[in-house]
Write a structure and sequence with these properties.
The complex is a heterodimer of chains A (about 240) and B (about 250). Helix content of chain A is about 55%, strand content about 10%. Chain A is of the alpha/beta class and about 240 residues long. Chain A has a single domain, classed as Rossmann fold. Chain A has a 5-stranded parallel beta sheet, with helices on both faces. In chain A, strand 1, helix 3 and strand 2 form a beta-alpha-beta unit. In chain A, helix 2 runs parallel beside helix 8, helix 3 packs parallel to helix 8 and helix 5 packs parallel to helix 6. Chain B is of the alpha/beta class and about 250 residues long. Chain B folds into 2 domains: about 160 residues, 3-Layer(aba) Sandwich (Rossmann fold), CATH 3.40.50; about 50 residues, SH3 type barrels. Chain B contains 5 helices and 10 strands, in the order αβαβαβαββαβββββ. In chain B, the strands form 2 sheets. A 5-stranded parallel beta sheet of chain B has the order 2-1-3-4-5, sandwiched between helices. Chain B has a 5-stranded antiparallel beta sheet with strand order 8-7-6-9-10. In chain B, strand 1, helix 2 and strand 2 form a beta-alpha-beta unit. In chain B, helix 1 crosses helix 5 and helix 3 runs parallel beside helix 4. The chains are: A alpha/beta (about 240), B alpha/beta (about 250). Chains A and B meet through helix 1, helix 2, helix 3 and helix 8 of A and helix 1, helix 2 and helix 5 of B.
Chain lengths: ~240, ~250
């Protein structure tokens, strides 16, 4: 890129500016302000959603204990956040790993479905192929309006999966849909700030699911041995 | 492990004063590199989705009208080999990785031989000073950091600030005389880092090496046998010493 190709975009800005110090101070201050906005949005979102997050996390924990699997999906940056979330469940730094994967992980599957049956079906077709009624679907969208996610959630709901949506702005069609068991809408107009809060909501869901699995194990251990399936640790003793 | 799974505190200060300055400087450097035609290559050997997230931010901006910028996630099994063939001098390599990640340490060490600048995003124990041109470090050793949006915030801000820099075209170019690096690659008398591309074809012949300024043939009689990938310091067409891999 040369000045010639970008100059027309900024005809009203001082092109002779040479000392970067003022800009660097502005950038640093802007970074701190945005981080504060992100922090406050994360805190207010978690506080407002706590009851629903606990309900969703408990339902997830119960399904995991019964052998359920988690599928996460999203588009663009949200697809990567969906993959990070699946990674937290299947390979956590602490706690019990459970079956979870992101439906954008396999580009052969995504492009085959996108090319042959249509992009709006890339997730719903995978739900049809993989899921059983005890499973869980989490879709991440900043707008709440992505057709491929809504189709995936609709298919998941039809098949008895627990359906959870993460959205932003006003929640869009996800918030309005009756196909979702839980919809977590982050009240912001910034895609970036919404995604940062989505990460914390996902983490909190994971923590509640872990706690639920621990509680259910305690309940199982308290039941009479005749009806109890030995845990792996007990078998090894 | 004693990690709490039931409660996670959101830090009061997600981006402190020092980190905000590091981010500002990294953003200006990155904007300048893009302005010169650089590609941003992204690796995250432990947390692959973060590499993809950074690349998609730059390639497909969330704000309509912002420039699409060249950025590619490198997520192959051997990040060093993949990056080595991908990068051109002047490019930027960004790693989202812990300080002890072996592939990232190797990449950062080789970067000067490839002529690329480096940005290292991570948490926990910090890499040593000078390990990368820009170290953007989350001041927490909580193992949950990679899954709680701290890195996402960091590279979102990097993207946002980089685009602010494009609104200051006068600051996107640096005059040569402004070069204030303590050991400037192009004007210093010090030995330059080189990576062996091909061993000598005949006895006592020169080895082909890659440096920040391109490929050249150097005499390696002082350092003995060399193999592709070896790092050496060279001066005036002569290999002076081998550099131990980090």
């Amino acid at each position: 890129m040369t000045d010639d190709s970008t100059g027309f975009l900024y005809p009203f800005i001082e092109a002779d500016e040479k000392d970067p110090q003022a800009l660097l101070v502005d950038l640093a201050s802007s970074a701190r302000d945005k981080a504060t906005i992100s922090r406050d949005l994360q805190r207010s979102s978690l506080a407002r959603m706590e009851g629903d997050i606990v309900a969703a996390g408990r339902a997830m924990g119960e399904r995991f204990v019964a052998g359920g699997r988690l599928y996460t999906f999203g588009n663009g940056g949200s697809s990567t956040d969906a993959a990070t979330l699946a990674g937290l469940f299947c390979n956590p730094p602490a706690g019990r790993p459970v079956a979870a994967w992101s439906l954008t992980d396999d580009q052969a599957v995504v492009t085959a479905l996108g090319n042959d049956v249509g992009f709006e079906l890339i997730f719903s077709r995978q739900i049809i192929a993989h899921s059983t009624p005890g499973d869980i679907a989490i879709a991440l969208s900043t707008s709440g309006n992505s057709d491929d996610l809504l189709r995936g959630l609709g298919e998941a709901r039809k098949r008895g999966l627990l359906t959870i949506g993460f959205a932003g702005y006003d929640g869009g069609q996800m918030q309005a849909s009756d196909e979702l068991d839980h919809c977590f809408t982050v009240d912001s107009q910034s895609i970036h700030r919404i995604q940062e809060s989505h990460a914390m909501i996902g983490h909190r869901l994971w923590a509640v699911a872990q706690e639920t699995m621990r509680e259910l194990r305690a309940v199982r251990r308290a039941t009479p041995p005749a009806t109890q399936t030995p845990t792996r640790e007990e078998v090894g003793r | 492990m004693t990690v709490q799974t039931d409660h996670y505190q959101i830090a009061d200060e997600l981006i402190g004063t020092d980190l905000s300055m590091d981010l500002a400087q990294a953003s200006l450097s990155l904007a300048r590199a893009f302005h010169r035609g650089a590609t941003l290559w992204v690796v995250s050997p432990q947390w692959e989705p973060h590499a993809h997230h950074v690349a998609v931010e730059f390639v497909h901006p969330v704000i309509m009208g912002k420039r699409a910028l060249p950025s590619v996630a490198l997520v192959g099994a051997d990040p060093v080999a993949q990056t080595r063939v991908a990068v051109r001098a002047g490019d930027v390599v960004l790693a989202v990785a812990a300080a002890d990640d072996p592939a990232t340490r190797s990449l950062m060490q080789r970067a000067p031989a490839w002529g690329v600048s480096t940005i290292w995003v991570g948490f926990g124990q910090k890499p040593p000073d000078g390990a990368a041109d820009h170290v953007l470090w989350v001041a927490s050793d909580d193992p949950m950091v990679p899954a709680t949006g701290r890195f996402v915030l960091m590279y979102h801000l990097l993207w946002e600030l980089t685009h602010v820099c494009f609104e200051h075209p006068g600051l996107l170019t640096v005059d040569d005389e402004e070069c204030t690096d303590e050991v400037c690659v192009t004007c210093s008398d010090e030995g330059r880092l080189a990576e062996v591309v091909e061993a000598p074809l005949e006895l006592a012949g020169p080895a082909a090496v890659r440096t920040a300024t391109g490929e050249e043939d150097v005499d390696v009689t002082l350092v003995g046998e060399v193999a592709p990938g070896d790092l050496i310091l060279i001066h005036a067409g002569l290999a002076l010493t081998k550099v131990e891999p980090s």
